[in-house]
Every structure is written in structure tokens, then in C-alpha cells.
Amino acid sequence: MSSEETKKFKEFFWPVRVYYEDTDSGGVVYYANYLKFMERARTELLRSIGYQQDQLQQELGIIFAVHSANIQYKKPARFNDELNVITSIISLGKASIHFKQSIHLKSALDSGMSATVSTGLLSKAEIKIACLNAKKFTPQSIPASIIIKINKEFYCGS
Question: What is the pTM of this model?
Fold first, then answer.
């Protein structure tokens, strides 16, 4: 396989509520805040397998940083909306993780709609995260222990 394996990974769901501070003067979520919601979901995905960002930096000497982001906005979220951020891994490379993320109205998902149905889809993105040496800010291989845990918890076959 290439240095960036393409496999099938399970989705990770993270709930978010829109607070007043998340909205702009028009009463809708400010566009940059969708990226913040996605960042929180990726952080919680790592936390769900036993890793925290500060722990990774202190104990393993690594950090994860956004390499690139491609985001599309479909519909606005508003104050007090309940959202679900859906995160899945597209590919797991030697020093990077390529994520697919989408934000949906929780009510649309609760009513039985598939995450692929666009009715409740507010935003979708592909985000590539690079693993970096925490001191030099240079690319570094993702530790094997993290790769193993990601595969154990989220890999669901090819």
C-alpha cells in the first residue's frame, strides 16, 4: 500500500449546541466557527481512544496541526440549534490523517435521516492533519500506538 492508506473507518459523532457567542450580527453561526466545531470533534475523537492534545505534546513530543482544509457551507445554523459533528477518517498516512467532517442539525438525524441526506446538512469539509515534532514543528511519524488504537476503534474493513 502507499504511504497514505485508504480504508473504511467508522463515523464518530460529537454533539454541539450553538451559543450566542457563536453567532454573527445576522443571528447565524459565523462561518469560522464551523471549523471550531470540527476541531472540537477531532479532539474528542482522539480523547475517545485515550489521547489528549497536551498529553501528546508532553509525553510523546508531538502535536497535530491543520495542514489543509476544504470546507463548504450549505445552510446556516442559528442560536440554540443542536448540531451533530460527524467525523470519519478518509486515510491514515505515516505522518498525517485525512478527515471527512460534516455538521448536521441534530433534529434531522434524530428523525431517522441518514447522514448522507442533505436536508439537515449545514456544512461539510475535508481536513488534513499533520503530525509534527512539538519543538521543531517539522513532520514526524504518527506514533505506532496511536495508529494501532485508531485502527482498533475505528477501522471497519476495506
Answer: 0.88
DSSP tag of 28? B
Give CA–CA dist 89/155, Å, rounded. Answer: 9
Grid coordinates given for 11: 463515523
Domain count of the fold of the chain: 1
Q: Catalytic site residue 24? A: yes
Q: State the first-to-last Cα distance of the chain, in angstroms, to the nearest integer.
A: 13
Domain span at residue 57? 4-154
Between the CA of residue 65 and those of 7, 53, 93, 104, 112, what are the distances in Å?
22, 11, 14, 24, 34
Q: Domain containing 149 — which CATH number?
A: 3.10.129.10
Q: Give the gyration radius of the chain's Cα atoms.
A: 16
| Cell triple for 95 | 505522518
Catalytic residue among 24, 54, 81, 110: 24
Q: What are 15-42's pLDDT values in tens digits?
A: 999 999 999 999 999 999 999 999 999 9
51-56 long-range Cβ contacts below 8 angstroms, 24+ apart: 51/146, 51/149
In which element (H, E) is residue 41 found?
helix 31-48
